Fold Double-stranded DNA-binding domain-containing protein.
Amino acid sequence: MADPELEAIRQRRMQELMAQQGAGGARGQQNPEQQKANDDAKREAEERRQMMLSQILSSEARERLARIALVKPEKARGVEDVILRAAQMGQIAEKVTEERLISLLEQINNQTTKQTKVTIQRRRNVLEDDD
C-alpha cells in the first residue's frame, strides 16, 4: 500500500463529489463517453480500495466486514474508511485480526449511539372550556 495511491484515490473522489454537487441533476446530460469514463474511474478506485483492505485485513476480518456490509453498508464503509486512514498514518503495523475489528466496531458503536428522548404532550380535551 503506497501513500501516493491513496492520495490519488482521495483526489479522484473529491473531483467526483465536486462534479456531482456542481452538476446537480445534470447527470443525464453527460455524453456516453464521459459517463463511461466516470464509471471506469469509480470501478478502478473501488478495486484499489478493496486491494488495500485485503492487504490490511486478515481473511476472518474481511469475512466479518463483508457480513456487516450486507446488513449495514454505510457502517461497513465507515469502518473501512477508519481502517484505511489508520493504515495510512502508520498506526496499523500488522494485519487487523477479527478480534481487533470487533473491538473497533464496539468503539464506533459506543461513539455513535443515539440518545432517544421521549416527550409526551397531552392534548387538551376539546370539550373543556377555560372561560
